[in-house]
Amino acid sequence: MSEEHPLVSVVIATYNRPAYLRSAIASVSRGSYQNFEIVVTDDAGPKENREVAESFQDPRVRYRRNKMRLGGTGNHREAIKVVAGEYVGLLNDDDEWEPRCLELLVPVLRNHPEVVIAFGDHHVIHANGVIDAAATEESTMRWKRDRLSAGSHQPFYEIALLDQSIPMVAALVRKNAIDWDDSPLEVGSLYDFWVTYLACRNGGAAWYCPERIARYRVHSMNDSVVGGQRTTKSSIYVYSRMVRDPQLAELRPKLQQRLARAQLSYGIILLEHGRAKEARKYLAPALLRGQRARAAIALGVSYLPKLFAPAVIGRLRGARHLR
Asked: How does DSSP assign 133-155, residue by residue?
């Protein structure tokens, strides 16, 4: 395909990290595969975002801006409407691709029409871009990519939703294989995980390339660092949807456990903020779904006078052994 009709669309969602954004765009531009477009989708951030995108003076780098903040899911949803490529990559503005990322993933999708998503592993880097070797190995093992065989996996419900082995920072998706419009705002910061859910529901295959083809940056402004409360509430929505999905019937008991843990965590967060009545709406379902000891204690705490509750909540947070 010509540059006017790129095969790959790389969506880079951004808000207020122009320095990192520059590195993200550059990492795609210097790659060994060149038939792409980059759509920088700005969630009503500062003017520097446009300046960074335009500084590349590359017609393949397109800039769009939301009139108001939509959040991560809304920002991506709007960007997907304007992409031109057959394959879509989602690269956060604070992450980077290795030069051979697209070179390795594009042929998989071209040669295997049953493959919905092709993905690899990634490095973990510090804020300054230096690779953290220990954290990289820990990440590979935590998400079980060290046990994942190279090549095709079909179906891939378990590796996508339970093991969560598919990192969107190192993945390429067949655009027409999933329903991108099914991206409710309640998904929030879990948009990457949601996309893997939409992909595995297709019934197609996932293809694993066991190389580190991206760099995931850990820093103080990560959603995972600053957005615990929002992420936990998003988890409740996401797992609630999965539990009701008839295609995931075999995984339902384990998904219900994940849902219960999210409900318990959010209930405890609400208790910490003095919102005991609201917390009970989440703690009661967690109790019924198996989080018995901690949920029961938390429910009891919700009826304690506010003077005594904080000390008990602190102990409850540390009591991970209770079930």
From this structure: HHHHHHHHHHTTTTSPPSEEESS
Q: Is 211 helix (H, G, I), strand (E, B) or coil?
A: strand
What pLDDT sits at residue 318? 56
- Please give the pLDDT value at position 293: 80
Cβ atoms of 12 and 38 closer than 8 Å: yes
- Fold adopted by 8-224: Spore Coat Polysaccharide Biosynthesis Protein SpsA; Chain A (3.90.550)
- Token digits of residue 279: 């917390």
**Longest CA span, the chain:** 68
Q: How far is CA 285 from the centre of its chain?
A: 25
Domain boundaries along the sequence of the chain: 8-224, 227-318
Residues 6+ apart with CB under 8 A from 55: 22
Q: Which residues pair with 8 in a beta bridge?
A: 36, 87
Distance CA 130, CA 227 (A): 24
DSSP label at residue 168: G
323: Cβ contacts below 8 Å, ≥ 6 apart: 290, 291, 292, 293, 294
Nearest of 266, 269, 259, 322 to residue 296 by alpha carbon: 322
Specify the residue for token string 């318990």.
Answer: 264
pLDDT in tens, 186-219: 999 899 999 999 999 989 999 999 999 999 999 8
Which H helix or E strand runs over 253? helix 252-272
Q: Are 71 and 97 in contact (CB under 8 A)?
A: no
| Residue ranges in the chain modelled with pLDDT below 70 | 1-4, 221-228, 306-323
pLDDT at position 292 is 74
Helix or strand run (H / E) with residue 10? strand 8-14
* Backbone torsion region of residue 35, taken as left when φ is above 0, otherwise alpha when ψ lies between -120 and 50, otherwise beta: beta
Q: Can you name the residues that pair with 205 across neighbouring β-strands?
A: 115
Q: What is the pLDDT of residues 73-119, one digit of tens each?
A: 999 999 999 999 999 999 999 999 999 999 999 999 999 999 999 99
Which token pair is 43? 């969630």
**Residue-level pLDDT at 274:** 84
